[in-house]
UniProtKB/TrEMBL annotation:
TM annotation in the entry: 32-53, 65-83, 89-108
Signal peptide: none
Location within or outside the cell: Membrane
Organism: Archangium minus
Superkingdom: Bacteria
Name of the protein described by the UniProt record: Energy-coupling factor transporter transmembrane protein EcfT
Membrane topology summary: Multi-pass membrane protein
Main location: membrane
């Protein structure tokens, strides 16, 4: 199987080194947690969409990500709004949307090998505490790669269930998505084992 979701473009976003993108994602997440007012998260969302345009990603290429975001965030907004109020709910949903879109942007504009190398380099100081930077880097890299992949699967499943007249049943979409995710994780584990990926434990 392949997780090659990188989309090559000649853009300023693609030219940014992988390490800088990962650091920017971390800082953005931290900033949104510390300063989670409606004006701040709204501005962050606008800036994020501007980065998508700057990366020259076509609407049809990122549409699955927006569908996945809506599929998850709209129910969350309704539940949170009924329980805590609509303005707090809007802040929470916009913050999650920005983080999801930024993580996807990093995945689509960064080669997997560059991402893994940057993560391993950043995590190397943790080896003295018994953490294996290669394994942890692989885990974090795969986590980012799976976000746009899930969006693609969601679109495919929705289209298949629409043909069957089941697109309005959320369980008819969620259950196949869960099964596909678990099967892919199992296949990925087998592929890693077949390539004898067994990094040495940090000394």
């Amino acid at each position: 199987m392949s997780l090659g979701l990188y989309l090559h473009r000649d853009s300023p976003v693609h030219a940014v080194p992988a390490g800088a993108k990962m650091l920017g994602l971390l800082l953005a997440g931290t900033g949104l947690l510390l300063f989670s007012s409606l004006p701040v998260v709204s501005a962050a969302l606008g800036l994020t969409l501007g980065l998508y345009a700057l990366a020259r990603l076509r609407p049809r290429e990122v549409a699955p990500v927006f569908r996945l975001s809506a599929f998850v965030l709209v129910p969350l907004f309704l539940v949170h709004g009924l329980l805590s109020g609509w303005v707090p709910a809007l802040v929470v949903v916009l913050r999650l949307a920005v983080l999801l879109l930024l993580a996807t942007l990093v995945s689509l504009t960064t080669r997997a090998s560059d991402m893994l190398e940057a993560l391993e380099r950043a995590l190397r100081p943790l080896a003295r505490f018994g953490v294996n930077p290669t394994r942890l880097g692989l885990l974090l890299s795969l986590t980012l790669r799976f976000i746009p992949l899930l969006a693609t699967w969601l679109r495919e499943i929705q289209e298949a269930q629409r043909v069957r007249g089941l697109d309005r049943d959320p369980f008819a979409v969620l259950l196949p998505l869960l099964v596909k995710t678990l099967r892919t994780a199992d296949t990925l584990a087998d592929a890693i084992d077949a390539r004898c990926f067994d990094p040495e434990e940090p000394s």
